[in-house]
Amino acid sequence: MDRVTLPEGDAKVAAVRSMFDAIAPRYDLLNRLLTFRLDVAWRRRAVRSLGLAPGAVVLDLASGTGDLCRRLEADGYQPVGIDLSLGMLRHARTGAPLVQADALRLPFPDGVADGAVSGFALRNVVDLGALFDEAARVVRPGGRVALLDVAQPPNPILRAGHRAYFGHVVPAVGAFLSDRSAYRYLPDSVAYLPPPEQMVARLAAAGFGAVTRRLLSGGVAQLITATRVLV
Known about the structure:
Distance between the termini: 50 Å
Helix content: 40-55%
Number of domains: 1
Strand content: 15-25%
CATH superfamily: Vaccinia Virus protein VP39
Largest sheet: 7 strands, mixed
Oligomer: single chain
């Protein structure tokens, strides 16, 4: 299967917005199907890793259809969803406030939130470092972030199986049930992610401490958590 040419800069912003607008109607269905519902457990773990007080305000960066917002509400938080794609926001199933905006330029004042989360969005932004900087700006000192994304299993057998599944099965099922080009792009977009140690170091440089990266489900997903340092 031919690999997708990955866009950069403004072309990436336009491509990501258009892609998520297109796949919004069946986005939740494909997530559950393609992860065998493991994504539900991953989001639950991400939210619980925040460890914030009940009623805390948590920004969901690239909130999509609101999966993490719903999980945040269930755990007693006050979520606010932000997404670049109007199509995703229109298909959101959450009572949380929703804002169409670029996560790199959030329309909020400094220190407005107690925490921030994101679900599988790190590889879809134009500048990952800028995302970390913006998260540091809007999260108060002592606040927490929990960032989910895909990963590569460290076990070579699992890695080979995951590569075959993610590279062939996911695009085939996506093409059948949703949008062919989008579900060819998503596996290839893993190439946007820098090495784990670079992500951890860059998050620390943005102003976060106690940065921890955990592999989930054998390494097919990763959860990065951190605390905004006191100033």
